[in-house]
Amino acid sequence: MGILCHGNVISWHPAPQDIREACRKAAQHCKESGVDLGRLAVRHSLLMEGVVTHLLGCINVDVLRKNLDSVINPLTPKEEQVNKEVKERFFQPLTHKHWEGVEPVKFRQQLQELRGQQPKEQR
Question: Which ranges form a coiled coil (predicted)?
Fold first, then answer.
């Protein structure tokens, strides 16, 4: 959905604003350092212990190739250094580091609001 790459984040992305801002700053830092944040994100997900799910967006063949390269090839020493900086400067300070469950909560709130607007006999 674009939050961990150098592109624009889609307007309807469910991440809270503090996460979106941390990702924006991390992407800018990576860009200035000549490192691809998306590659760091893919490598990070591959090193997670346990059962994890990571969705890779592939809008064209070039992005698919970059993603496959990220899966196959380890980070360079420079990428490792920038990865460490990104984690320490932008992501460690976050209180919440994911947006899991945000959409269902919003959906339930909207549903309750809609129910509250209907006459009781229609509920």
Answer: none
- Convert the pLDDT of each residue in 58-67 to its tens digit: 888 998 999 8
Cβ partners under 8 Å of residue 36, min gap 6? 5, 6, 30, 66
Q: How far apart are CA 12 and CA 106, in angstroms?
A: 12
87 three-class SS: helix
**For helices 61-72 and 37-46, what crossing angle results, to 10°?**
50
CA–CA dist 82, 91 (Å, integer): 13
Whole-structure pTM value: 0.77
> If DSSP codes are grouped into helix, strand and coil, which group holds residue 89?
helix
79 in Cβ contact with 39 (< 8 Å) = yes
SS3 (DSSP) at 113: helix
Give SS3 for 6: coil
Tokens representing 17 are 């604003």
- CA distances (Å), origin 70, targets 29, 44, 45, 47, 75: 19, 10, 11, 12, 8
